Amino acid sequence: MLYLIVDEHSGILLKIYRCLSKAKYNVISNKFGKRSSDGKPYVKLELEGGKLPLPPFLEGELLNINGCTDILYDEPAGVDTDTETATTTINASDSEKSKSEISAACKEIIDHFDNIENIVHSFSQRHQTTNSANQIYALGFTVGAAVYELEYALGKPLKLQPALKRMLSDAIKTFGKVSCNQTIISIENNIFCKAVDTDSHCDFTKGFMTGFLHSSPLTKEVRVENISCRSQGRTSCSFEFH
Description:
Layout: E1 2-6, H1 12-22, E2 26-35, E3 41-48, H2 56-63, E4 68-72, E5 79-80, H3 92-111, H4 116-126, H5 132-151, H6 160-171, E6 177-181, E7 184-188, H7 203-214, E8 224-228, E9 236-241
């Protein structure tokens, strides 16, 4: 179990989710509480998809989040269990509902790919929760995999660099102005990330790229790293592939 000591609840959980999601840690449930010893609030997270303790780089990224002050792997001393607020456990029915919504949105995108920006935006608006980053990433992953199967699977599987240049760059050409250099792809003016909206991120784009590449036998182990984002004031969103 992972415990993060935080200064406040408002807005911080989404930042924590995004940070963990980038490192392929999926949050199954969260619960807020307070230590009775000093009244400090904490969030208790149940994770899957990664090992504990967290790697040092990820601990550093979490502690760089404004309001996240400490990381613990054992229950904080002097926990006041009466202060714990409702958990957001993802139960089976919620999971099935989520899969159904993602499947429906994916079909709509495939049928109307020229309207992908509006469909993704609409999906994002309907999922304004602490788990929204994971939901949008999952939609991107599903769409990317579907696009590969529909348009690129019949060709000869390619190794990473030619796959990025010949297939993935072509598949995302409607996202913005795409450039590919070795193992880095950049998208100038990415339609999913707005410079004026600091809450927009590359969750869909990263999911799309991952789902697309993982559908090919020669790139199914590739890891996608989002190294810059338009919402952070950059001119382009860039991704490195390992």
